[in-house]
Design brief:
By secondary structure, the chain is mainly beta. It contains 2 helices and 6 strands. It is elongated and about 75 Å long.
């Protein structure tokens, strides 16, 4: 099984382009702090295709927090000196926007605050009303 899940922040604005046959593809890099050592950070290249690529380009920006699920792909190539090089990228199946471009670009916009509910505000429920 080849599955990876990461949560992190974009290091730069996403880059949208199209293949020769018009297929949309978006690339970006996500910085992820290590779980037990927040001083260390890993950087993952992410590739997203089709409609998801267009949405990533539209709604994400440098610093946006995202959750990414997908497959790890190992690619190799030869550099100009003939040395074999390897790169790893995530081919994303899902990208969850954990912060919006609008909130990132406008820090003066108030963030929603959760409303506390008191015990007195709750409705009493009879056992017969329970769905299980």
């Amino acid at each position: 099984m080849n599955k990876i899940h990461i949560i992190g922040r974009l290091t730069a604005n996403p880059e949208l382009r199209a293949t020769g046959n018009g297929l949309q593809v978006c690339s970006f890099t996500v910085a992820v702090s290590r779980r037990f050592n927040r001083e260390e950070t890993d950087f993952f290249s992410v590739t997203v295709w089709r409609d998801a690529a267009v949405n990533c380009n539209k709604y994400l920006a440098k610093g946006s927090q995202v959750g990414v699920s997908g497959e790890l792909h190992l690619k190799h190539y030869h550099d100009k000196d003939g040395t074999k090089r390897f790169t790893i990228e995530i081919q994303a199946d899902e990208v969850e926007f954990l912060s919006s471009k609008q909130n990132e670009n406008n820090p003066s916009m108030p963030k929603p605050t959760p409303r506390q509910t008191t015990i007195e505000e709750l409705d009493e429920v009879e056992d017969d009303d329970m769905p299980f």
